Amino acid sequence: MTTPGDDRKLIDEYRNIAAVVTALALLQAATGAISVVGPLTLIAQGASTLTIGAIASSYALGFMLGARLAPAEIRQIGHIRAFAAFAAVGSLAAGGLYISEHTAWWMLMQALIGLSVAGLFASGESWIAGAAPAERRGAVLGFYLVTSKLGFMIGPFLAAYTTPGSAAGFLLVSALFTASLIPVSATRRAEPPAPSAEPFGPVRLWQTAPSAVIAAFIAGVVNGAVMQLYALFITDLSPESVAGMAAVFNAAMMAGTVLAQWPAGMISDHFDRRIVIAV
Fold it and tell me: Which residues, in sequence order, are CB contacts of 212 under 8 Å at separation 6+?
């Protein structure tokens, strides 16, 4: 039987989790917006498809570096400070894209955005996992995944109201990165303890679950190309309303992701996960 004190404590915990989920949803809105603003700006500047692909790859390189560095940063300064630092880097880099049209500059800024996004995910998701009650962790994570995908769906629709190549698009992305700081900074609850686990390197990961590594690599190849370059496809498909169609295209992909997650997870609980991955 629960007491009023227990209920208040549980409400406080959920309020704390909701703040982090809101922050990550704003982050996803920023990444969704930049997936439209970036390619359409490059197209307006006359960049080649090879250049656009190289810039998209630099984002992935930065993300990989951020995923490697984030745990150590969180251990040293904690979740809130790490989140704030990575959000600041993402905001500055998004605004910095407007400064120059040079390919090398765009690659550097996109790499910094990728690094910051990886760090924000590491800070926020580990915070949610640590703060969620053990008996309700699955439901909390499911709520987070749906909310974050909704954020990613909304971002391109916001970007659709800006003119490709104008300052407004970059200011929008920068503002969304900055806005993600507000709910995290305003939470009254203590952040979870810094992670103490040792890094789980790629060699050990391959030895433990090689099929998962292969699946993740293939998913990265597909997702990296689609999520970073789908605006190019829309340019040929609907040149009259590129930004609006890109937002609808992205929303359809995200809706499919949300709808598929629950049944895929349920099926993997009853069948060999390698078979599910293969299918």
Answer: 205, 273, 277
Looking at per-residue confidence, does 86 or 234 come out higher? Answer: 86
Where b means 16+ CB within 10 Å and e means fewer, 143-163 reads bbbebbbbbbbbbbbbbbebe
How many other C-beta atoms are found inside a 10 Å radius of the C-beta of residue 5? 8
| HSE-CB for 71 with a 13 A CA cutoff | 10
Residues in the chain: 279
DSSP of 118-150: HHHHHHHHHHHHHHS-GGGHHHHHHHHHHHHHH
Judged by DSSP in three states, 67 sits in helix
Judged against a pLDDT cut of 70, whether residue 7 lies above it is answered with no
* pLDDT (tens digit per residue) in 142-170: 788 888 888 998 998 998 888 888 899 99
Q: What is the pTM of this model?
A: 0.83
The two tokens of residue 18 are: 């909701």
Give the pLDDT of residue 13.
66
Q: Please provide the distance, in angstroms rounded to a whole number, between the alpha carbons at the two ends of the chain.
A: 45
H runs (alpha helix) in the chain: 4-44, 49-77, 79-96, 103-131, 137-159, 167-179, 181-186, 202-208, 210-237, 242-268, 273-278
What is the distance between the alpha carbons of residues 156 and 169, in angstroms, rounded to a whole number?
A: 10
Residue that is written with structure tokens 């009023």 in the block:
4
